[in-house]
Amino acid sequence: MEYFNTKTNELTLVEDVRGEELVTKKYQFPIYVKGIFTKKAIDLGAELEENQYMVSGDMFDRLANYFVELYGKQFTYEGLVNGIDSRKIVSTFVEMLFSVLQGDSKNE
Questions:
Q1: Interval 48-58: pLDDT, tens
Q2: Long-range pairs, 61-68, Cβ under 8 A, ≥24
Q3: pLDDT of 1-38, one tens digit each?
Q4: How far apart are CA 84 and CA 24, in angstroms?
Q5: Burial level of 17, CB count in 10 A (0-12/13-18/19+)?
Q6: Hey, which end of the chain has fewer CB within 10 Å, N or C?
Q7: Are 15 and 3 in contact (CB under 8 A)?
Q8: What's the rounded Cα separation, in Å, for the pair 59 and 62?
Q9: In the chain, what are the domain boundaries?
């Protein structure tokens, strides 16, 4: 399952599991993002790089809270961290962070 679409920055979270079926909800990337989110992404990215992309518990929380704010609180911290499979959450967070750093090339 793809949780983050790198072309649209749409985020898909699992809200429930019914037998073998995943109940998901899609969240659109905001139409406008304040520049401060880029600065925060630069700082988080630099720290990740410095730590060779090893994500501590503190960094995990900071990334999750950053994405909750970035997406305009369309979902909660708990909804985000429980809505992505544990085997893919760190790589999804990194992918999301780099999408902010790369900017939006589709509208240029």
A1: 999 998 999 99
A2: 63/93, 63/97, 64/93, 66/37, 66/40, 66/41, 66/97, 67/11, 67/93, 67/96
A3: 999 999 999 999 999 999 999 999 999 999 999 999 99
A4: 10
A5: exposed
A6: C
A7: no
A8: 5
A9: 11-103
Look up residue 75 and give its two tokens: 């979902």
Tally Cβ neighbours within 10 Å of residue 10.
Answer: 14
**pLDDT classification of 102: cutoffs 50, 70, 90:** confident
Instruction: Report the distance separating Cα 25 and Cα 41, nearest Å.
Output: 25
The model's pTM: 0.91
Structure tokens at 58: 């503190």
